[in-house]
Amino acid sequence: MNEQQICQVVEQVISQTKTKAMNLKLACALISKIENKAESMGIAVVIAVSDKAARPVAVHCMDGAYIASYDIAVNKAYTSAGLKMSTAKLAGLAQPGQELYGIQHTNQGRIVIFGGGEVLEDKGKIVGALGVSGGTLEQDTELAAYGKEIFEEVLRCL
Amino acid sequence: MNEQQICQVVEQVISQTKTKAMNLKLACALISKIENKAESMGIAVVIAVSDKAARPVAVHCMDGAYIASYDIAVNKAYTSAGLKMSTAKLAGLAQPGQELYGIQHTNQGRIVIFGGGEVLEDKGKIVGALGVSGGTLEQDTELAAYGKEIFEEVLRCL
Amino acid sequence: MNEQQICQVVEQVISQTKTKAMNLKLACALISKIENKAESMGIAVVIAVSDKAARPVAVHCMDGAYIASYDIAVNKAYTSAGLKMSTAKLAGLAQPGQELYGIQHTNQGRIVIFGGGEVLEDKGKIVGALGVSGGTLEQDTELAAYGKEIFEEVLRCL
Amino acid sequence: MNEQQICQVVEQVISQTKTKAMNLKLACALISKIENKAESMGIAVVIAVSDKAARPVAVHCMDGAYIASYDIAVNKAYTSAGLKMSTAKLAGLAQPGQELYGIQHTNQGRIVIFGGGEVLEDKGKIVGALGVSGGTLEQDTELAAYGKEIFEEVLRCL
Predict the structure, then answer these.
(1) Rounded Cα distance, B82 and B78, in Å
(2) pLDDT digits (tens, 9 = 90+) for A114-127
(3) D107 touches chain B (CB under 8 A)
């Protein structure tokens, strides 16, 4: 191998092993896909994407979405990034009598305990989170799951 | 004129006099222009656009922007929509000894009293507001003023 | 007995009956033991120790712990010191229909009603509290109970 | 060079160019140095270290430190990580009549506008922040500057 070939292999290895960090372009590309799906479902939602430190990167409010959905979507992303799980899973744990009952009060009102929040992963590592609010619980949960599912594909296309 | 012709003229007149409402597409188009300008200035900012009810419509955090700028940008948009003035103008009024001294304490920490927030107008009517945070005060103020200036043009191009 | 001998005996008696106050060295020694145990369990947790006035003395976030766990661990220590009981015990009392139902709303979001918080005692007297968050409820509860159990031993070794 | 040798060189190069992320061991090693210096100055302070996302990693309250210093130290670290500057520099900008006057109200009370907060850098890149509170302003500022100064050395020694 000559120097140039080594460089190429090294670059390849690095790019293959490195997890992508969340960024604005990626967040917007993902949001755009979810907006399209929400439109096809005939609903208007707020979509928030955060980085893995639970800091918001982009928030879009579709025309006519609930005013209250802004905080809910942002907080769903915070919750999923902050606890490394979907808010749908947390919902089960936070019911009266269940093990995390009361967790919605521990973080200054930022923990959401119903579906619509998901972590976003690249090769099994969390790189951010997603929050969707504005439809029924089923619709928010479906849209967030859809976003999680297509995330790596969106990431690879950028 | 027959009935159909009258209808057409009326529709035209109404569409010309009607103020456009803020919407997600418009907010994103404006944000995109400001992002380009911020990039050309070599800075990373957070840009928030609200509707005229001071409710956020879209927020974008450019890669590497200050973490603290998210709240500041959103609050600058809130302040401008909420008080129908730029935060640069409010800055003068809120200094010790000036008439609105203390206003930064009145709205649960959402009033920002330095530049970077502007109202967005269509034909002289407020349709929303803009908040920019992440550069120096001068840069934020310049970017917000730029956004205000190009807003109607952006609106007409959609 | 001469004066010097009397002094020595008195000092001994006082030191044996005196409750140790929480301090930074003690808090860190306890945290360190719990970190070791968490590591051996393969989990990353946040550990907070407060004094008997429910004021934090030390907080450590193990690498990779949940972001949301910081507030939760600090609040578990607050809750246990503030109510002189484990948060596991409080969990039972705070369920719907139980006598302290609603207590999670009384202290600005600082009351945690699931396991992982314990009081720390020296000779039966409360000298502080401990909060652990980041594992499952069972793991947090186990780690906090472990911390409570070894506390006096840690205290004697300093 | 054979494949194995190339791999070793590549790993070395990567580890040399990579910026260290903040972690608990590093935060505690830095805090320990600052505690020693505070002790030598005869004062008790609270020391907080955050990662670059402004999330706390470790907080230590020296025995006898002000109760109020816990929030102040944590918030100084938040402010420096959140705005990528020392709180001493921000102090100048936030005075009445200066450009960021009023910034202390924009982020839910987490912006501190007096000295004692510093960013922590590795090879010119921010990897976290430090907050010190409990002495006079001069002492807090000195201790934070000291922490910033020795940070890379502490990092290299781990």
Answers:
(1) 6
(2) 999 999 999 999 99
(3) yes
